[in-house]
Amino acid sequence: MDQTRLPREVVYRECHDERAVWEAIKTLQVRGAPAIGIAAAYGVCLGIKSAPDDEQAFFQRLDEVASYLASSRPTAVNLFWALDRMRRRAETLRGQPLDLIRKALLEEVRAIHEEDRALCHAIGRWGESLIEDRSGILTHCNAGGLATAEYGTALAVIYEAVAKGKRVHVFADETRPLLQGARLTAWELKAHGIPVTLICDNMAAEVMKEGKVQAVIVGADRIAANGDTANKIGTYGLAILARYHRIPFYVAAPSSTFDLQLSHGGLIPIEQRDPREVTSPFGIPIAPEGIDVYNPAFDVTPAELITAIICEKGVIRPVNKETIAAILGRALAGPERAQTVVK
Ligand SMILES: CSC[C@@H](O)[C@@H](O)C(=O)COP(=O)(O)O
Predict the structure, then answer these.
(1) Which of 19, 96, 179, 335 sits at a 20 to 30 Å CA gap from 215?
(2) Residue 210 above 80 pLDDT?
(3) Residue 76 Cα: closest atom of ligand 1
(4) Cβ(268)–Cβ(302) below 8 Å
(5) In the chain, where are the structural domains located?
(6) Where is this site: Transition state stabilizer (predicted)?
(7) 35 annotated binding-site participant
(8) Annotated binding residue at 325?
(9) Is 297 in the pocket of ligand 1 (CB under 6 A)?
(10) If you average pLDDT over residues 273-292, what whole number do you get?
């Protein structure tokens, strides 16, 4: 689904080669950390369709395609995680017929896709226990079904709480500059019949002060080993506001969003985007021509401001490198750590 067309129209776009997938990721037609990982992994399958019949040239092409897709966006680690997983799967099959490797890679991406669905539902089940009946919940950007295989991360917690009969009211931050909250989260929640009120980003403090918010739940693009979390720009500010108002601040993300190679959030690469997203959102000029613009797409919330991280394996609380390592069940320097293609 081309997310840039929402909420006005639901349009599906077919990608027939890796370039189309790269462009769809870059331009946010497909967006959200898990979703871009899944899309990129499908892009690998498209890119090796016409790879040469010689094994060495095949693997070289596979490397080129994976590196190319990894250059589409820098912050969400799920992208690199999914591409690494595809490359590792291919490596285990060296020496086998190339058609068998192609088939195995398609099976691998289908497994990644299916697993993400299951992970999101598990996140919802763990997170639901943190939500009280009659809660106001504030969320930022879109961490819903649109951003994942299905159900979402932050929104999975809300869907599950509602499924359990809890009465919730969601406040969706509009999420400047690209309005993922207004265009996507408001649309998605409304479609699911969840009560939702759209607010401008600069209204969050007031809404909290008025006692309308009992929890903040957001997704994540990359979580460092100590729990520092990169998510859509504006998330850090919300965490500070939540701390001041004594409101719990939760991050919901699958284990593929953790980057245990990075000891702290200062090492997370932050995507800088086109200034025109700020000066001419959706093609409408709103600022003087030639004005200087700073447009980081993400910020990093320090672990100390995060009440808990909800992942598919459980609730990590307090958030620090020991609790993260314990719940994720792998040593910080273990052999399974991601081999990032490009950062
Ligand atoms: C489950 S999606 C989590 C994050 O990827 C989401 O909160 C976010 O920041 C997405 O940013 P975007 O630039 O729209 O891809």
Answers:
(1) 179
(2) yes
(3) 5
(4) no
(5) 3-121, 130-328
(6) 141
(7) no
(8) no
(9) yes
(10) 96
- Domain 130-328, what fold? Rossmann fold (3.40.50)
What's the CA-to-centroid distance between 95 and ligand 1, angstroms?
Answer: 39
Give the list of residues 6+ apart from residue 49 with CB closer than 8 angstroms, or none: 102
Assign a CATH topology to domain 3-121: Four Helix Bundle (Hemerythrin (Met), subunit A) (1.20.120)
E strands present in 207-313: 215-218, 222-224, 229-232, 249-252, 258-259, 298-301, 308-311
Residues 62-82: pLDDT tens digits?
A: 999 999 999 999 999 999 999
**2 is an active site residue:** no
Separation of alpha carbons 247 and 238, rounded Å: 10
Residue 333 has pLDDT above 90, yes or no: no
Q: For position 335, what pLDDT does the model report?
A: 41
320 labeled binding residue: no
Q: Quickly list DSSP for 44-58.
A: HHHHTTT--SSHHHH
pLDDT at 318 (0 to 100): 98
Binding site membership of 89 for ligand 1 (Cβ less than 6 Å): no
Q: Which residue in this structure is represented by tokens 């000029």?
A: 285
Whether ligand 1 lies within 6 angstroms of the CB of 147 is answered as yes
pTM: 0.95
Structure tokens that stand for 169 in this block: 């009211």
Choose the catalytic residue: 221, 228, 259, 299: 221
